[in-house]
């Protein structure tokens, strides 16, 4: 059915700027699954997590948004992440990183790289964007200090005031511009 | 009065007998989907076009059910470690109902 | 008080005048002979009353030698200009003679309406003109001055009645009532009438052309008329124009050159007249298509000559509004006129600008009609009862042509025509189906509706009728070519379900014969069928259970879930005095089955007896039996089985007015829920991508399944969301209101 949805012909005024969409050639079954996931994600109301494709031409690159869970040190902060799906998704995990600098024991403060088992060796084909976003959200409150990517963060985790200072030093609020 | 039915053109849907309890109340929307492709069991996996016997289900001893094609593809990846994607126990196909028709 | 100087000046002047008149003759003899000459000349020139025979005669017998000598003397005395002035004055003074004549003729004409009178008047005027003309020897200047004065006087006294008569006379030169001398044009010319009344004479030509076009072309659309009209112009109008517009031409070549300009005006007028006529007839021409091809070819040619495209568009749009796009018109009729419009305008204007302008309002209108898609789809699958097919059977089956962006690398690319509006879509000649489908911005709706229709038709096939299934299969094969294989994959599964059902039934029957013959369908591949809570009572349930058991034996990994409200039951009722055999829907069958246990049931008992069904549907089903005289509603909502037939009483109540219960949810009904879904997507993209401009939201919404709103509709939707405080819009971009 994805062929149907991509063949929508909007009025001409819109056709011109979006020429890319007609050349949108995506591997059918993966696109199908991603469309399905997007639909599920949109219809479910999981508080504080969301994601959407970056552009209408490419279903394989998404932007995600995670709100820090309340009653954690990240409460009130919002983080952007980018999600990049491989062509053999869901048999292989998507590549995920933080775009908003995130001071966290399992996140590299410079590259945004994340150390989370389900994104590496514990990946399963039944996981989805939604499960990943939920895992990341809970990772914020419950870091795995045993294998830190950011040793500084791991070191100050137990002193919340110091941690919060560092966190806020790096944090950059999301600007609401396209 | 005696009512005799001479001929009845009825309409029915087929369902996979997954062993799960039939949710009463007709077409419940939260029906079972294959965890890998997210398509309902009675639909077909992304690589098939015709549902049913051409795109059968596979049962694990762990009781998890998938489209056979989806599961075999998963098992074929190194990441799977031959485990059920649901519970990560080693996959053992239940001897139950494959190719029995 | 005259001074000496002044006096001498006057004297000198006088002397000079005298000398000129007296010349060198002795005494005043020169002056006397000048006076004689003046009198002779003046007498000769004096405009005579030609109605007076004496006066005319005197003039005719004048001694020309004497007259010439007299003029010669006046000329030598340089008094000719004065003589001319006197002459012209006398013309004016004498003109009452001509006026009298004119009035006499016109009175006669008005009384008799005899064109011959006008004819004689013209020649009479020529007679006056000739009679009063000065002799040739006086030279062209005097002649010209005379002619001018004569004509000026003439025009000043011609009463309005003359113009009418003159026009009638001109008309008669074109359509001779009586044979008119061709020299009449010379007479017109002599009197200056051709120049004076040039516009009037041309209008005679124009009116003749209009009359002829209307008379010979109105409602004659099968053959092109232009060629015939041109021939008529060249044999009837051009010869008429010759004496007026090509006077003095020495040969045909020269005449042609002189006629070129005016001829082109007449030809233009002919084209315009035909164009106006066809424009006024266009709606009916389209109705008549393809028997009106001739008219269309004419119109195409006329439009190239006459710039009337916009009035054609206006006329057709107006006619469409008035005659087509109103609630009384049948959708099928609108569609067939729409298709005919497409075909016709494509003949008139291949680039499709006119078509776009005319078709757009029809498309908008059709889009708002709920049954449009269904009508088109019924036509696509060649519904037997649809009568005339919109689609030409000879039209090659080809894939739907999508409206594409312009490809400037296309060697065949042409710039859009100059009158194309900003919304104009290059409408490359495409097939009718594509154009019909393009009424909607997406073909999704069609595919959905196609499924619904196919489902209805397949489920209606009660017997083992593989021929009908095959027919549907052929239809789907054809539609696949149009819509693409993938779009119709679902239909493929539906058809396969039909053949599988038959095969499975064959097997089940061979194991254990049953009177149940189900169509077993694959869920997700059939349009959403309305669910039902009906539980079939008594023997029906037993039949279902038995069949389902046998099915699961055959297919151990599958089970059956009945859709009890669908299908048909063939029943036989054995009553005390009669046996009734008939086909009924399952609900009717369920109710009558209940009556085999006891004879009287209330409505509520019946409804709970079949597991629950809405009252309207229940009443409708029960009334089927009441109408058949099997049940009787003694008290309202209490039904009794009539074991013995009773006198047919008038039906106690008519069937409830509720609409036929639709078994299949129409695709458009599902549309309603979609907006809620779209909002979720908009919320999702604004959360992750920040503020977005409207057109970006529109393109991103293609991720929402089945999104088919126009950008205008989206704008309205965003506006509504803003009013609800969900979003904020600024400078054309939208963001969530947090």
Automatic annotation (TrEMBL), chain A:
SMART domains: UBCc
Keywords: ATP-binding, Nucleotide-binding, Transferase, Ubl conjugation pathway
PROSITE patterns: UBC_1 (PS00183), UBC_2 (PS50127)
Domain UBC core: 29-176
Listed InterPro entries: Ub_conjugating_enzyme, UBC, UBQ-conjugating_AS, UBQ-conjugating_enzyme/RWD
Family of the protein in this entry: Belongs to the ubiquitin-conjugating enzyme family.
Record's protein name: Ubiquitin-conjugating enzyme/RWD-like protein
Lineage: Eukaryota, Fungi, Dikarya, Basidiomycota, Agaricomycotina
TrEMBL record, chain B:
Gene3D superfamilies per record: Zinc/RING finger domain, C3HC4 (zinc finger) (3.30.40.10)
Domain RING-type, first and last residues per copy: 45-88
GO biological process, one term: anaphase-promoting complex-dependent catabolic process
Source species, domain of life: Eukaryota
GO cellular component, one term: anaphase-promoting complex
Presence of keyword Zinc: yes
Annotated CDD domains: RING-H2_APC11
Classification via PROSITE patterns: ZF_RING_2
Alphabetized UniProt keyword annotations: Cell cycle, Cell division, Metal-binding, Mitosis, Ubl conjugation pathway, Zinc, Zinc-finger
GO molecular function: cullin family protein binding; ubiquitin protein ligase activity; zinc ion binding
Keyword Cell wall biogenesis/degradation: no
PANTHER family, sorted: RING BOX
Name listed for the protein in its UniProt record: Anaphase-promoting complex subunit 11
From TrEMBL, chain C:
InterPro entries: ANAPC2 (IPR044554), ANAPC2_C (IPR014786), Cullin-like_AB (IPR059120), Cullin_homology (IPR016158), Cullin_homology_sf (IPR036317), TPR_ANAPC2 (IPR057975), WH-like_DNA-bd_sf (IPR036388), WH_DNA-bd_sf (IPR036390)
Cross-referenced PROSITE patterns: CULLIN_2
Protein name (Swiss-Prot/TrEMBL): Anaphase-promoting complex subunit 2
Family to which this protein belongs: Belongs to the cullin family.
Molecular function via GO: ubiquitin protein ligase binding
Keyword entries, A-Z: Cell cycle, Cell division, Mitosis, Ubl conjugation pathway
GO biological process: cell division; metaphase/anaphase transition of mitotic cell cycle; protein K11-linked ubiquitination; ubiquitin-dependent protein catabolic process
Organism encoding this protein: Mycena belliarum
Positions of the UniProt region annotated as Disordered: 645-666
Biased composition (Low complexity): 655-666
Entry GO CC: anaphase-promoting complex
Signal sequence segment: none
PANTHER family noted in UniProt: ANAPHASE-PROMOTING COMPLEX SUBUNIT 2 (PTHR45957)
Domain Cullin family profile residues, every copy: 433-606
Lineage: Eukaryota, Fungi, Dikarya, Basidiomycota, Agaricomycotina
Pfam families in UniProt: ANAPC2, Cullin_AB, TPR_ANAPC2
């Amino acid at each position: 059915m994805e062929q149907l949805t991509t063949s929508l012909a909007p009025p001409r005024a819109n056709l011109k700027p979006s020429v890319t969409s007609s050349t949108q050639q995506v591997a059918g079954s993966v696109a199908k699954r991603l469309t399905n996931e997007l639909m599920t994600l949109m219809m479910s109301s999981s508080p504080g997590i969301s994601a959407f494709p970056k552009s209408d031409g490419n279903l394989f690159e998404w932007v995600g948004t995670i709100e820090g869970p309340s009653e954690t040190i990240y409460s009130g902060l919002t983080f952007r992440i980018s999600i990049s799906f491989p062509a053999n998704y869901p048999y292989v995990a998507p590549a995920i990183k933080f775009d908003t600098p995130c001071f966290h024991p399992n996140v590299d403060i410079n590259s945004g790289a994340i150390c989370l088992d389900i994104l590496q060796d514990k990946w399963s084909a039944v996981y989805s964007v939604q499960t990943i976003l939920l895992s990341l959200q809970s990772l914020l409150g419950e870091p795995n200090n045993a294998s830190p990517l950011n040793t500084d963060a791991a070191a100050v985790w137990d002193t919340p005031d110091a941690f919060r200072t560092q966190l806020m030093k790096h944090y950059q609020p999301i600007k609401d511009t396209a | 009065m005696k009512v005799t039915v001479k001929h009845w053109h009825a309409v029915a849907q087929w369902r996979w007998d997954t062993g799960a309890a039939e949710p009463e109340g007709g077409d419940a929307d939260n029906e079972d989907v294959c965890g890998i492709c997210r398509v309902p069991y009675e639909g077909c996996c992304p690589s098939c076009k015709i549902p049913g016997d051409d795109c059968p289900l596979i049962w694990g001893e762990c009781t998890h059910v998938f489209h056979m094609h989806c599961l075999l593809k998963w098992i074929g990846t190194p990441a799977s470690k031959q485990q059920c994607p649901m519970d990560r126990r080693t996959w053992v196909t239940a001897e139950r109902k494959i190719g029995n028709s | 008080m005259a001074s000496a100087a002044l006096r001498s000046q006057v004297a000198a002047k006088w002397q000079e005048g005298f000398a000129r008149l007296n010349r060198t003759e002795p005494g005043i003899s020169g002056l006397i002979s000048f006076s004689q000459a003046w009198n002779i000349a003046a007498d000769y020139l004096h405009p005579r009353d030609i109605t007076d025979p004496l006066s005319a005669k005197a003039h005719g017998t004048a001694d020309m030698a004497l007259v010439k000598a007299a003029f010669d003397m006046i000329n030598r005395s340089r008094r000719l200009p004065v003589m001319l002035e006197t002459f012209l004055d006398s013309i004016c003074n004498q003109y009452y003679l001509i006026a009298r004549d004119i009035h006499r003729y016109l009175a006669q004409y008005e009384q008799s309406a005899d064109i011959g009178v006008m004819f004689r008047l013209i020649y009479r005027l020529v007679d006056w003109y000739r009679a009063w003309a000065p002799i040739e020897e006086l030279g062209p200047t005097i002649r010209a001055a005379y002619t001018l004065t004569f004509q000026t006087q003439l025009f000043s006294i011609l009463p309005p009645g003359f113009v009418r008569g003159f026009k009638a006379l001109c008309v008669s030169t074109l359509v001779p009532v009586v044979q008119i001398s061709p020299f009449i044009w010379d007479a017109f010319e002599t009197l200056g009438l051709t120049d004076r009344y040039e516009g009037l004479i041309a209008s005679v030509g124009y009116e003749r052309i209009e009359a002829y076009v209307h008379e010979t072309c109105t409602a004659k659309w099968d053959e092109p008329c232009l060629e015939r009209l041109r021939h008529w112009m060249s044999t009837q109008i051009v010869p008429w124009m010759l004496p007026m517009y090509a006077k003095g031409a020495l040969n045909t070549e020269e005449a042609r050159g002189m006629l070129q300009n005016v001829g082109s005006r007449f030809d233009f007028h002919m084209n315009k007249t035909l164009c106006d006529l066809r424009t006024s007839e266009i709606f009916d021409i389209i109705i008549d298509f393809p028997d009106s091809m001739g008219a269309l070819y004419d119109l195409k040619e006329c439009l190239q000559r006459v710039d009337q495209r916009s009035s054609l568009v206006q006329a057709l749009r107006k006619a469409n509004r008035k005659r087509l796009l109103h609630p009384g018109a049948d959708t099928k009729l609108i569609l067939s006129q729409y298709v005919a419009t497409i075909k016709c305008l494509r003949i008139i204007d291949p680039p499709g600008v006119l078509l776009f302008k005319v078709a757009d309002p029809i498309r908008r209108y059709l889009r708002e009609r709920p049954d449009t898609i269904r009508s088109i789809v019924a036509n696509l699958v060649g519904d037997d009862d649809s009568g005339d097919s919109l689609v030409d059977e000879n039209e090659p089956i080809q894939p739907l042509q999508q409206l594409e962006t312009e490809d400037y690398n296309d060697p065949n690319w042409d710039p859009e025509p100059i009158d194309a509006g900003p919304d104009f879509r290059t409408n490359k000649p495409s097939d009718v189906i594509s154009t019909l489908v393009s009424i909607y911005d997406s073909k999704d709706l069609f595919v959905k509706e196609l499924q619904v229709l196919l489902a209805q038709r397949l489920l209606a096939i009660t017997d083992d009728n593989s021929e009908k299934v095959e027919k549907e299969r052929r239809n789907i094969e054809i539609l696949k070519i149009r819509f693409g294989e993938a779009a119709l994959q679902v239909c493929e599964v539906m058809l396969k379900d039909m053949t599988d059902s038959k095969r499975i039934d064959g097997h089940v029957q061979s194991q254990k014969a049953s009177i149940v013959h189900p169509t077993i369908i694959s869920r997700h591949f059939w349009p959403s069928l309305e669910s039902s809570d009906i539980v079939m009572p008594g023997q029906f349930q037993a039949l279902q259970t038995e069949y389902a058991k046998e099915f699961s034996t055959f297919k151990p990994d599958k089970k059956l879930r009945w859709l009890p409200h669908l299908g048909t039951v063939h029943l036989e009722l054995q009553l005390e005095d009669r046996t009734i055999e008939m086909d009924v829907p399952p609900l009717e069958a369920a109710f009558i089955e209940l009556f085999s246990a006891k004879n009287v049931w209330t409505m509520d008992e019946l409804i709970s007896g079949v597991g629950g069904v809405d009252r309207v549907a229940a009443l409708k089903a029960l009334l089927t039996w009441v109408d058949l005289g099997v049940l009787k509603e003694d008290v309202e909502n209490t039904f009794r089985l009539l074991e013995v037939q009773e006198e047919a009483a008038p039906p106690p109540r008519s069937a409830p007015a509720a609409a036929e219960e639709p078994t299949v949810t129409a695709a458009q009904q599902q549309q309603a829920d979609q907006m809620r879904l779209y909002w979720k997507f908009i919320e999702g993209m604004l959360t992750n991508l920040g503020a977005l401009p409207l057109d970006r939201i529109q393109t991103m919404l293609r991720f929402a399944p089945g999104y088919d709103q126009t950008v205008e509709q989206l704008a309205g939707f965003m506006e509504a969301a803003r009013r609800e405080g969900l979003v904020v819009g600024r400078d054309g971009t939208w963001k969530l209101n947090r």
